């Protein structure tokens, strides 16, 4: 159905956010970035648009822009190639100033999360390819002999 996703996130300090995500290892698409926005490339067809709060407000007239440091509106979940990559990405985020969220380990699925400088929740997760193929519940049942 859809070929791309653009997630729009309000940020207090665009330069600080760019430095934060750059320190984790992400890049920006300068074709879609300016003094109001930075196109954070998450994957080949996934982009998070980091928008200055006042610019973000222009997209939602009449609505209040949340303060993600106190209110959760969404959790952005991204896949990783392995458990080690999950820990690497979250470790880099913490070193760059993120706040730790939590870690969940279900054996076939492993994830860890952090909150960025503006309080947006990011979860990095890995799932065993066999569990993806079979479906998590079916895979878990087969592992438990059911």
From TrEMBL:
Pfam families: Ble-like_N. Gene3D superfamilies: 2,3-Dihydroxybiphenyl 1,2-Dioxygenase, domain 1. Residues 3-127 form the VOC domain. PANTHER family: BLR2408 PROTEIN, BLR2520 PROTEIN. This is Glyoxalase.
């Amino acid at each position: 159905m859809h070929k791309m996703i653009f997630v729009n996130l309000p940020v207090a300090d665009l330069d600080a956010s760019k430095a934060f995500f750059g320190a984790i290892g992400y890049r920006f698409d300068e074709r879609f970035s300016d003094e109001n926005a930075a196109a954070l490339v998450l994957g080949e067809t996934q982009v998070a648009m980091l928008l200055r709060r006042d610019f973000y407000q222009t997209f939602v007239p009449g609505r209040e822009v949340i303060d993600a440091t106190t209110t959760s509106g969404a959790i952005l979940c991204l896949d990783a190639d392995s458990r080690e990559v999950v820990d690497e990405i979250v470790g880099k985020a913490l070193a760059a100033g993120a706040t730790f969220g939590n870690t969940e380990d279900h054996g076939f699925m492993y994830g860890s999360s952090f909150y960025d400088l503006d309080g947006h929740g990011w979860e990095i997760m890995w799932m065993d390819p066999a569990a993806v193929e079979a479906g998590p519940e079916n895979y878990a049942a087969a592992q438990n002999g059911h």
